[in-house]
Amino acid sequence: MWNSILEILEEKVKQGVDVRVMYDDLGSMATLKERYSKELEQKGIKCIVFNKLNPIAGVIMNNRDHRKILVIDGKVAFSGGINIADEYINAIVKHGHWKDNAIKISGDAVWNYTVMFLTMWNAFRNEDSDFFKYKYDFKDKPTNNGYVVPYGETPLDDDATGEDIYLNIINQANNYVYIFTPYLIIDSNMVNALTLAAKRGVDVRIVIPGIPDKKIVYTLSESYVELLVKEGVKVYRYTPGFVHSKVFVSDDNIATVGTINMDYRSLYLHFECGAYLENVDVIKDIKKDLVNTIEKSQEISKKEATPRLLKAVWQALLRLVAPLM
């Protein structure tokens, strides 16, 4: 996947396009050379390695860049769960069929992604005194009345933006809320929101992987499945393989697509992003994708969700270190 993109980026550099790449050091250490950023710079591609691993730096090594942002000329932005790796396009198979979601955005909302990228970039390489030169002026404004609001999550402030958006969607749901998440390691606020929604008659459905990428993390997720299923939340395993999507959709009028997993690391430690959508046409496509995926998945029964004694003890021990996962 990356090689085909790299060919295009090299071509664009030759055409005089300002090409910038930023990747997380920990997330790429198993696949990239230590000095890979230098190789890109030699090709004319500006490159920053986010938060290089340093054992002396201590706890800040936990703060990883989990965002996936592509902005082109300020006109178009792409974001979502998809990393640049072959398994994400099913060119190779690691955990069965890889199910993921991304969103393409055009219009004024692209500016939010531009600012998110440039803010992070200039934290490492202060070279842009004026962000507005990258803002595209859209002459033709959309005629619909909906909203698309890209948002960022950062561990540098006290606001849990990602979790707040998730909780608000669940708490405001009247008819249904459908969720994709690869990891289900949630706190009491999220458990209460999901179970109370189910108890008031909301059709709450969560799709998790059928084939895990991390067995210990999956075992921990299963412990929360037991709590939810017993309270009326429907949880499905995507039997063809692994779900990496981070998507919520509710009542045909609200959705969010982004990078934020339902776990401690994404909600509190990582730099993340998402797009909040309200009353826009694409929401019906998001719902359709979720419904189609649920049809390929298997609902977890109460009996299946209830672990045997030894597994229950193991899950309880894992809960103690849940914030590290």
Notes on the protein architecture:
This protein has 325 residues and is of the alpha/beta class. It has one domain (66-324): Endonuclease Chain A (Endonuclease, Chain A, 2-Layer Sandwich). It has helices at 2-14, 25-28, 36-42, 110-124, 161-172, 188-199, 215-230, 264-269, 282-295, 302-305, 309-320, and strands at 20-24, 46-50, 69-72, 76-80, 97-99, 102-106, 147-153, 176-180, 203-209, 234-238, 241-243, 247-250, 254-258, 272-278, 298-299. The strands form 4 sheets. It has an 8-stranded mixed sheet, with helices on both faces. It has a 3-stranded antiparallel sheet with strand order 3-4-6, covered by helices on one side. Strands 1-2 form a two-stranded parallel ribbon. α7 (215-230) links the parallel β9 (203-209) and β10 (234-238). The protein is globular.
Secondary structure: elements and pairs:
Layout: H1 2-14, E1 20-24, H2 25-28, H3 36-42, E2 46-50, E3 69-72, E4 76-80, E5 97-99, E6 102-106, H4 110-124, E7 147-153, H5 161-172, E8 176-180, H6 188-199, E9 203-209, H7 215-230, E10 234-238, E11 241-243, E12 247-250, E13 254-258, H8 264-269, E14 272-278, H9 282-295, E15 298-299, H10 302-305, H11 309-320
Parallel strand pairs: 1-2, 5-11, 8-9, 9-10
Antiparallel strand pairs: 3-4, 4-6, 7-14, 8-12, 10-15, 12-13, 13-14
Helix pairs in contact: 5-6, 7-11
